[in-house]
Design brief:
The chain is an alpha+beta fold and about 220 residues long. It is globular, with a radius of gyration of 18 Å. Strands 1-3-2-6-7-5-8-4 form an eight-stranded antiparallel barrel, surrounded by four helices. It is built from six helices and eight strands, in the order βαβαβαββαβαβαβ.
Length: about 220
């Protein structure tokens, strides 16, 4: 299947008001569209957290990209918005196994997709409203950095309650944490031990590989 077209999901987390500009730049490379949601990030500073100034308004941009456009798009956005500097934003990609809709319908791509080894892992944790900060703190204790919290709510109650044990139509926090692949197992163990996902309405957690990571600032 040498002519197979592969796709990635590009995830961009930037400060409030920047996502639409990022999307405009991505379209110059070949991205056809994206979805933007409001969120808030956390500042990795104990002093600011004590002062109640630990939250920063964020936007999360999701874009489906043909593999041939992925690195070009990520590099262009990194250079245009100076993501190599601290507190400018984070961008990364993860390979997709199925795409249905705008581009085409593709099935079982993971069986043939020649993806490179990921350098990071993205943890997605869905917990009751107010517990997102606890998830971020647990990840920090496990060696990770801050996270991004997206407000949401549970829906389609019968299915969600029966499968996931999550309360009907309850408010939720979706927490995104990007961690180095080498510490992924440690982070998973910390989350499992401290969030107690086996309890009713405690939430769910999953992770996906992350590649082409830009914007993680290390002093």
């Amino acid at each position: 299947m040498t002519n197979q077209t592969y796709y990635d999901l590009i995830v961009v987390i930037v400060n409030l008001g920047k996502a639409s500009r990022v999307l405009a730049e991505a379209k110059k490379i070949g991205i056809t569209g994206g979805t933007i949601s409001l969120a808030h990030g956390t500042v990795n500073s104990s002093l600011l957290r004590k002062l109640g100034l630990s939250e920063i308004r964020k936007e999360v941009l999701l874009m489906v990209s043909q593999r041939k456009h992925t690195v070009l798009t990520i590099n262009h956005i990194t250079d245009t918005f100076h993501l190599e500097e601290p507190n400018r934003g984070i961008i990364f990609s993860t390979p997709l196994s199925t795409v249905v809709g705008t581009h085409n319908q593709l099935s079982d791509l993971h069986d043939t997709d020649p993806v490179s080894d990921p350098t990071h892992e993205m943890f997605v944790t869905i917990v009751p409203e107010g517990d997102g900060d606890k998830v971020v703190e647990v990840v920090r204790q496990g060696g990770g950095a801050g996270g991004t919290i997206i407000p949401a709510y549970g829906a389609f109650a019968e299915t969600v309650t029966r499968v996931f044990g999550i309360e009907i139509n309850s408010e939720k926090d979706i927490v995104i944490n990007l961690v180095d692949k080498q510490m992924a197992n440690q982070i998973e163990e910390e989350l499992t031990r401290n969030i107690h996902f086996q309890d009713s309405d405690s939430g769910i957690m999953f992770s996906v590989d992350a590649q082409n990571v830009r914007g993680i600032y290390i002093k």
